[in-house]
């Protein structure tokens, strides 16, 4: 009888420890945005202007920290991003600094995770807004 009780106690203990570890491990909500994304941006100040961009977002991003980069391959500029806020399906960023090219790090924007798995990007500067859909590469 004691052996059976000990066996049941051990099984229950292991299952509680296992479920406790699983619950505490939890995933980072920003990780849903992680990956490499690409698409074409349109501009409010020039409807004929189109530029190709590539967005890279690593896993493990935290609000207030550097989190990935945006590379505008059309004009050869790359910027570092800081995660400004995360709310449900909206990843709000600000440019931290230029990484390459002679482009100023102005403004910020949002990356909105769409139901179809794409991201909609809207980037605002004092002079224009750039927007477009991005697909995961």
Task: Tell me about this structure.
With 137 residues, the protein is of the alpha+beta class. The protein has one domain (29-136): Beta Barrel (Lipocalin), CATH 2.40.128. The protein has one helix at 2-25; strands spanning 35-43, 46-57, 66-72, 77-87, 90-100, 108-113, 119-124, 129-136. It has an eight-stranded antiparallel β-barrel with strand order 1-2-3-4-5-6-7-8. Strand 2 and strand 3 (66-72) form a beta hairpin.
List keywords for this structure.
137 residues, alpha+beta, Lipocalin, eight-stranded antiparallel β-barrel, 8 strands, 18% helix, globular
What is the string of helix and strand elements? HEEEEEEEE
Rg over CA atoms, rounded to whole Å, is: 22 Å
Strand content: over 45%
CATH domain class name? Mainly Beta
Distance between the termini: 59 Å
Mean pLDDT: 86
Which structural class best describes the helix and strand composition?
Answer: alpha+beta
The CATH architecture can be given as Beta Barrel
* Poorly predicted regions: 10-25
Overall geometric form: globular
Give the biggest sheet: 8 strands, antiparallel, barrel
The CATH topology annotation reads as: Lipocalin
Q: Helix fraction?
A: 10-25%
| Count of alpha/pi helices | 1
Number of strands: 8
| Tally of separate domains | 1
Question: Taking strands numbered 1, 2, ... along the chain, how are they ordered across the largest sheet?
Answer: 1-2-3-4-5-6-7-8
